[in-house]
Amino acid sequence: MINIETFTLGPLQTNAYLLTNSDRTRGIVIDPGMNPAALLRRIENIEIEAILLTHAHFDHIGGVTAVREAKKCPVYLHPLEADWLTSPKKNGSMNWPQLGGAITTDEAEYDLGEGQILKLLGIELKVFHTPGHSPGSVSFLWENHLFSGDVLFRLSVGRTDLLGGSYRDLADSIHGKLFELDDQVVVYPGHGPKTTIGYEKLNNPHV
């Protein structure tokens, strides 16, 4: 049994996800956002195996350093955004200084790629490269749970007007990969409430 907990962090209300094993002694963190105090308290007595990043925008990476230093765990990120972790200009934190100023962290230890299978927590997560919101955006699928980052939201999609964004790529990612999944797959987005693939196929006005 895997437990999924959501932490809504920072000024942009970014969803960070904590997946833990049945006895909640080991876990992985997806997108530790800004102001991660609540997440840090929760994982104080949990061994964190990895930090998985759906992409490297500042609101999704703001808590990476704090979690990494507290838990001594590696970071996984798509190589197209490898240098975004060290560049406030590329990760966007310089564009909105009123939200907290420049954000940087050390480079990721591991790359992510299309079709990759991550074996963590005794489970397998499949990696989908889903560019459009950003060039290195990825989504993680475990059984019928999809962590979509800022690619697909409930009744919305990720913006494409930031560095490396492309609506054509975003539409290709959603229609060519995510909408190929089972309708019952639950989508855990980077912002906002959960949804399902089937619901978005029928109701999302942006795709």
Automatic annotation (TrEMBL):
Source organism superkingdom: Bacteria
Keywords for this protein: Hydrolase, Metal-binding, Zinc
Free-text function comment from the UniProt entry: Counteracts the endogenous Pycsar antiviral defense system. Phosphodiesterase that enables metal-dependent hydrolysis of host cyclic nucleotide Pycsar defense signals such as cCMP and cUMP.
Catalytic reaction(s) noted: 3',5'-cyclic UMP + H2O = UMP + H(+); 3',5'-cyclic CMP + H2O = CMP + H(+)
Annotated SUPFAM superfamilies: Metallo-hydrolase/oxidoreductase
Protein name as catalogued: MBL fold metallo-hydrolase
Recorded GO MF terms: hydrolase activity; metal ion binding
Co-factor(s): Zn(2+)
